[in-house]
Amino acid sequence: NQNYLFGNPQQKQLELEEAVKLCEAMDSVVVGSDIYGIRQLGPTFFGDGQLLEIQKSMIETEATILVVNSFITGSQQRNIEQAISCPKVLDRFSLILQIFFLRAKGYEAKLQVELARCLFEKTRLIRQINTGKYGSSDNQKEVVSARQRGGTRSVGGGGESEIELERRVLKDKEIYLKKKILEVQQVRKTQRARRDSYTNPIVALVGYTNAGKSTLLNTVTHRNDTFVCDQLFATLEPTLRHCHLPSGQAVIFSDTVGFINRLPHELVV
Prior knowledge:
The protein has helices at 9-25, 48-61, 74-84, 92-103, 107-122, 162-196, 213-221, and strands at residues 2-4, 35-37, 65-68, 88-91, 202-205, 239-244, 250-255. Strands 5-7-6 form a 3-stranded mixed sheet, with helices on one face. It has a two-stranded parallel sheet with strand order 1-2. A two-stranded parallel sheet has the order 3-4. It starts with a strand and ends in a 14-residue tail after the last strand. α1 runs parallel beside α4, α4 (92-103) packs antiparallel against α5 and α5 (107-122) packs antiparallel against α6 (162-196). The longest helix is centred in the middle third of the chain and has 35 residues, at 162-196. By secondary structure, the chain is α/β, with parallel strands linked by helices. α3 (74-84) links the parallel β3 (65-68) and β4. Helix content is 42%, strand content 11%.
């Protein structure tokens, strides 16, 4: 579902088509899509009438995942799931993140995606609540873990809440991943310095995802070993190929990861 506050309908239709392709890139079968105008963002992102329409459509098509082509908060995601009894709601961030997680092959790419997932999960930590409609903050309660700050389970400190424990675990994981990424970047820096000493020029193929960069690379290098697929983010690894131009000049072609509109900043390296 593509949602907007303002914007021209033609552009929104193009964005919706892009969202459908993103879903297909996640190896999902898209059974329906629509554009909804949002006048005012609320706790469920959509209006009550829109939620009923979405729920009806999902029941009729037997859909199990709702994709919102916008960025929503953790509480909005939970409220939508509760309101329409949907087992899984993905926003644009989590959809692209899921694609990157499925496609990342190299060590550094996997580290970067795992770090992005870690930062994303930190924004999705929500307290367990005795809710009224759509997560009212009345009678809010945190789930207390068995791990105490001191003494025994019956005698000791105030305890560490589940959300505090999860936040700490994610923070430790974030520190670890950033350290590993820094180590890899140091190696890459050395490799880049070595490449800079080459006399051969480097030509980077840059453009939108699925624009045909890999196909162009195979064509100009007269090789067919670079993976090609009519799919968004088919590959997430840069590829280098040596080639000689008709003039005899040796060059290195670099196939880069493609662009996309509103790519989550955490996935930009």
